[in-house]
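Technical appendix A lists one of the benchmark inputs used to test multi-chain prediction within the project. The record comprises two sequence entries:
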Amino acid sequence: MSSRKTIGEALVAAADTHFGLRFIEHDATTKVTSYRDLLADALCIAGALRAHGYTSGDRVALVIPEVSRFVHAFFGIVAAGLVPVPLCPPAQAGDVATFAKQSLHIIRASRAVAVLTTDDVAPLLHASAGHPDAGGPLSQTFHTLDQLRTGDAPLASPAALTLDDIALLQFTSGSTALPKGVVLSHGNIAANVEAILGPSGLDARAGDVAVSWLPLYHDMGLIGMLLSSLYAPADAVLMSQVLFLKRPSAWLNAISTWGGTVSYAPNFAYELCRRRVKSSQLAALDLSRWRVAGCGAEPIRPDTLMQFADYFAPAGFAATSFLPSYGLAEHSLAVSFAHGGLDVDVVDAELLVQESRAVPVVNGAASLRIVRCGEPFPGHAIRIVDEAFNELPERHVGSIVAAGPSVMQGYFEQPAATAGALRDGWLQTGDLGYMANGSLYLCGRTKDLIIRQGRKYHPPDIESSLADLQGVALSGVVVFAITTVGDTDEVVAVIETRAGGRGPEIEEAVRRRVRETAGLDIDRVILTPPGTIPRTTSGKVRRSETRERLEAGTLVR
Amino acid sequence: MERFDTPSASAAGPTADMANATADRFERDTIDILKRLSRRPIEPTLDKELMADLGFDSLQILEFIGELEDHFNIAVPLNSLTHIRTVGQIVAEVRGLAASRPWAPA
């Protein structure tokens, strides 16, 4: 076993090589920095942070939209021995209120000592904090990179830390009511990166180049792409997510131009490329060196990936490059990778739904196609358990639990939530699945979560945002996702309406409110008379039961 | 792709008419692109909000911005993206960016 390193030690080791990073910003401007230069700049930023009196373990919120600046700031915070708390930057039209609300929550919940941001973003946070219901002005000191770089006392080396020290506070996305910070130690990250780079992972080799547009404030971009490249060490091309979403071809162009061998994306990105990259652009692309096309973070649709492979075959893309993956922030990132391309288990739909058994389909019965997500990494374990925590035999669907050195330390200052997630060292992933021939297959999830384009949304947050709408009955709102194996979530809102309310107006108001507050599109709004939604004796809505009744056709008569 | 905002094309025609014609073109083309990208029939007017009124999600908004950038040969700054809500604001932004191009006609 290799000796594991803290992030600071990995940066020092990488600085001794000729490798480095290429940044491609939202407007396609490009910058290159070697790990050596990155270390020097990080030590300069770290010196300035230390000069402000921050000490090891203090949290620093990081809100920077530009890729290059984010990376420099991240390593500056790490080199100072502080704990970065990456935040989603504001990006889209009209999303300022949501951005500010979520950011303020996280800044306060993490009890950050400082916020490292830009001159553009800082005013948005200050303005929002001033609102009466936002908790008042922020006590944190705000810094920009330019200010910190004027510090003239760089550290000689990154602050000495151990593998047990906290490396990162990763807040789970989408939640506004109760943001939960996943606490990861340097040891967690080193163990997960080791698994990712190892033979059961990407099987990293000389000449690898990672290309990524994934946001760096999330685990897949930050740990899977940036930190894995640092620890390897290897070259990486890091592109702005905004550029990718504006022009998906920019991602494939970068892979083609810079000889990308490893790149990761959620299912929707492959769909987006097939839909928006014109066939006339294919001739200019060379995707033949792309040996690992990872797919994870949201349900994998076999059809999407096969269509992508067919469409981009003329550009040299090989379907065997697909690497379906499973992971979650609470497990640092990766839980399992499936080698050998897309491998689909075709099981009897009836038996899966009724008896929770995944039985290979025989002649013509209704079937479901489930993607193989691989085997556990060395030193890690995966089990499928029932509600009493007993391990289930192969091909029985149950809760996925995972153990090993990648499992988080807990949720930041939330002992109850931590106790709920960790049981005797086993992480309750909240996902459902089964094992077959030692491989993991995913079939949905136990938690009430909505996943859209890799982003997670919590139904209670959305429900509470609808409570005061005109025409909506008192606590007459339930929002949930109908999850179909191998398909994207359908987001449904069931609304009990007051007498006299006008249907089309209420429906439009519901859609509008959810778009504005959560940035989420509701697929289906169902208006019902009061008393339709099942409730507990204390009057709380029963979300799962509402969903089950809707699917069974017994919710609305 | 058709590009009618090249320097040579813009240099043609009397300057007085051009201000009006240009204004119409930015608005008309922006609205055409919006209609083409929408998943359902929409009637965009300058006061409409992209998310709340026209039903665009964050993904579609960035696709829209990308199309605008290609069509008008501009680069929309990140900071503007954050603040733009309505069709009218976008048209104004596009017009401003097009006018500030180094080779834009005086």
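Chain A touches chain B at residues 26-27, 65-66, 90-96, 99, 120, 124, 242, 245-247, 268, 272, 276, 453, 511-512, 515-516, 519-521 (CB under 8 Å). The longest strand of chain A covers residues 426-436. Comparable benchmark entries are summarised in Table A2.
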